[in-house]
Design goal:
Blueprint (H helix, E strand, L loop, with lengths): L9 H24 L5 H22 L7 H25 L5 H8 L2 H11 L7 H18 L9 H23 L5 H23 L9 H28 L2 H4 L2 H17 L5 H19 L19
């Protein structure tokens, strides 16, 4: 039987891999969506449609709606998983490329364990920290050449703030992971959608439905696989794995996004890109996937930072 602190089983790894595949495609799809739809409106439309699917699923499955503290935590999950980061991300993706956006979001595996440790959800280990740094180094190596990378500072700050919100959403997602993932999204996603649509109305965006084929297909993907599929998978992984390990998906997103961009935009692979991807995989394996050596006579792995 799998636990939230042990090594991942086959089902958890399969859900994690599928989440990485779908999440990497989301960044490319958002870029296509932003070509026709205003950013906050596009994000709100996406999550409003996906939320309707989750609500119908919850009713069909006759799931029990959360109450009290669980309801409050689920609302907070909706704000930090959907409203705050996606408002920032959709806005930033008008100004930066999908690849650059995923590079910035790669700091989530470094932020989530710090947030989890600060909120006493799980201890922080040196292995997790070094794995995150190694993975982040691989992404930097992939994307920063001799000529450097130029990012608008507004887009950069927006993506960094989105990364912080995503890190906190993993914490809230872990705290409500005992609930059915469909119900968690049936509550949290409408909260996020309402906040995004409200923001869109406040700034005066034009609410138009997608007409161009690339925008239409992008929104369809984002609503179904990119929202319903992705966030069910994420909550399943959170239930069975640690916050630190779950957050490593954000390190792998750039690899998948760049592969998709190479396929869709015909961008060639480079030695730097391939070698960087290998470093990313090594960091993910070391920090989250490799089995931990246990101390004889102890049931838990010692924590190097906290001395326990």
């Amino acid at each position: 039987m799998n636990t939230s602190t042990g090594s991942p089983g086959a089902l958890t790894l399969a859900a994690f891999t599928a989440a990485v595949l779908l999440g990497g495609g989301n960044f490319v799809a958002v870029r296509f969506s932003n070509r026709e739809l205003a950013p906050f409106w596009g994000a709100g439309l996406r999550f409003a449609l996906a939320a309707a699917i989750f609500v119908v699923m919850a009713m069909v499955l006759r799931l029990q709606w959360p109450r009290g503290r669980q309801l409050r935590l689920t609302v907070l999950y909706g704000l930090f998983a959907f409203a705050i980061p996606y408002a920032l991300m959709y806005w930033a993706l008008v100004r930066v490329t999908a690849g650059m956006a995923t590079v910035v979001l790669a700091v989530v595996p470094l932020l989530a364990p710090l947030l989890a440790a600060g909120q006493r959800l799980e201890p922080l280990s040196l292995r997790t920290s070094w794995g995150g740094l190694l993975s982040l180094g691989g992404i930097v190596w992939m994307t920063v050449g001799a000529e450097g990378v130029v990012l608008p500072w507004t887009g950069l700050l927006a993506m960094l703030a989105a990364a912080l919100a995503f890190g906190q959403s993993v914490i809230f997602g872990k705290r409500v992971s005992g609930n059915h993932p469909v119900m968690t999204n049936a509550v949290g996603m409408p909260v996020g959608a309402a906040a995004l649509l409200g923001l869109s109305a406040v700034v005066g965006e034009e609410w138009l439905l997608p007409r161009q084929s690339e925008a239409l297909w992008s929104v369809a993907y984002l609503v179904t696989l990119g929202s319903v599929g992705l966030f069910v998978l994420f909550l399943l992984v959170m239930r069975r794995w640690t916050v630190s390990a779950t957050s490593y998906a954000f390190v792998l997103f750039p690899v998948m996004t760049m592969l998709l961009e190479a396929w869709l935009v015909s961008e060639p692979f480079t030695v730097r890109g391939v070698s960087g991807a290998l470093v990313v995989m090594a960091g993910v394996w070391f920090g989250a996937l490799a089995p931990h050596r246990r101390v004889r006579g102890s049931r838990t792995r010692p924590n190097l930072l906290f001395g326990r």
